[in-house]
Each structure stands twice: as structure tokens, then as C-alpha cells.
Amino acid sequence: MEPMEGKYNIKAISNMLGIQPGTLRAWERRYNIVHPERNSAGHRLYTEKDAAVLKWILDKTSSGFTVSQAVGLLDKFEEIDSMAAHPMEVDHTFALAEEILGHLLRFREAEAQEALNRAFSMFTLEKVTTDILGTLLVKVGTLWEMDQITIAHEHYITSFLRTKIGSIMHSYNVKGFLPKIVTAAGPNENHELGLLFFTLYLKRKGFEVIYLGVGIPEEDLIQVMGEIDSSIFFTSCTLLENLEPSLEFITELETLHPHLSIGMGGHAVQYMDVDKTKEYSRFLVGSDASEWDEWISNVLYKKTENRKN
């Protein structure tokens, strides 16, 4: 089908972009930015180029431009035709993630849930998990670190995301040949977004994960690791003030359980100096999925080699 052929009705475009139909009609009337065809029944039919234009406008408004400012820049944008020619490259998850975040920042759970339901109706579980929920986890953590939201906002949004991610985690199948992993926040940590995100990553990989969350005393974690049949432990540290206690804890855990593979991540890890990073490099999992893949692969390889010996 040619990019210039109308194929999306207004409901489809609304779902794709996360824009209310009334907003679309208002933009057409006020800014004259798209000119959808009409079918025999008089219903709008949008082309791939229309979708690309609307997506571009939406992205600009999400970046702080007004609609009128974005429209003013539209004529200078030379990639619309290219985007329309490759419709699969147009990703609409960003707008939905921003919409959900906007609702949650205003404590509007019902509206956030409705937008999330829309996402699930449009995209695969994998895409919603990675591109929407994952994006939200990172964005909320960044906003909190930059003091742009309050603790109340962070706790409220975390609670919402924890519930959704928790239900999704149970939908992934466990691969029995993979080792069991325990995840828990470091000493004195009350923020679990990073821990949730890494746990979700492990669940998607097929690992059985025992998620202990935040607030577990160090002595209890040490005791539990002796009781659970697990060969891998991961902890996260968000606050810089908790970095030293976290490093001391994993060092002690390693001494008590020498065959346990221990990983650590989180925002505070980024602030370790060169010497300390080198000293604790065996624990550091990295900050993105590619680095996590490498860390997990190395852990599994070492365990395989140890079994051979």
C-alpha cells in the first residue's frame, strides 16, 4: 500500500498516537496540518504521511514546544516523507509513556490505567514492558534524582508501576535450566525502581527470581542467602550516602558465601572513582541491557566451567 493512500480511520490514529479524536479534529481545523481523505461514508482516512506529521508534532510538544511553534517548524522538517515511506519505524510508545506519566504526576490512576490498557491493546507485552514501563521507570528515577518531583510523587508512581510489573513478571515462563536469582535493595535503601527494572529484565530472560525488595536488614539477607538454593544475588544502590554500606555488605556476603555470584547496580554506582570501580569491578553489572547481558553471560560461563572442574 502506498504511503499516500488513506488507510487509518480516526480511532486507529487516536490509538496509535495516544491523541484524543477531538484533539485531532481541533488540530486539523486550527492548524491545517493534515488533510485526511474521506471514504464513501464521510469518515476520515489518514495516510502514513499524516501519521508521521502528527507523530512529529506530538514529539515536539512533548519536548516543550507549543503546537503552533511545532507547526511553524514543520515546513523545515525534511524527514517526514522518509518516515512515511517506512511506517514501521514510527514508534508511538513514547507518547503513551508520556501520557501515563502525566496522569500519574497528577495522581490520576484511572486515566493512567486507561492509557496503559490502550498500550496493551496496541503493542506486544514485550514492547509495552520495555518501551513504556521501562521508560517510565527510568524517567521517574531521573526526575526524582533531579529534585523535579517529590518523594510523594515517586512513591505513588512506584507503587503503580510495581503493581503492573509484578503482574507482568508472573506471565513469563521460567527456564528450569537457569539458576535461581535473589534480588534485594542495599542497606538503608528505600527506592526500588532500579531494582524492579533489573528484576524485570531477569524475568524476561527466563530466570526464576526471588524479589525481596527494600527494607531487609543485612543480617536477614545474609541468613536468607544461606537458606535459599540460589547461586546469584543482585543488589541496587540509588543514594550515594548508601554506597559504602552497600559495598561493605556485598564484600561480607562474598566472604560468607564464596560460591555466590554477586552483582550490584544503581545510580550511586556511577559516582565511584576509578580506583574503587576497579576494586569492585567483579560486582558491577553495568547500566544498560547490553552490559547486563555481558555480566549474566560471564556469570553463567563461570558456573559452567566450575561444574566441569
Automatic annotation (TrEMBL):
InterPro entries in the cross-refs: Cbl-bd_cap (IPR003759), Cobalamin-bd (IPR006158), Cobalamin-bd_sf (IPR036724), DNA-bd_dom_put_sf (IPR009061), MerR-type_HTH_dom (IPR000551), MerR_fam (IPR047057), Meth_synthase_dom (IPR036594)
All copies of domain B12-binding, residue ranges: 178-309
Key words, A-Z: DNA-binding, Transcription, Transcription regulation
Listed Gene3D superfamilies: 1.10.1660.10, Cobalamin-binding domain, Methionine synthase domain
Domain HTH merR-type: residue ranges: 7-76
A Pfam cross-reference name: B12-binding
CDD domains membership: HTH_MlrA-CarA
SUPFAM superfamilies, alphabetized: Cobalamin (vitamin B12)-binding domain (SSF52242), Putative DNA-binding domain (SSF46955)
Gene Ontology molecular-function annotations: cobalamin binding; DNA binding; DNA-binding transcription factor activity; metal ion binding
Protein name: B12 binding protein
Organism: Sinobaca qinghaiensis
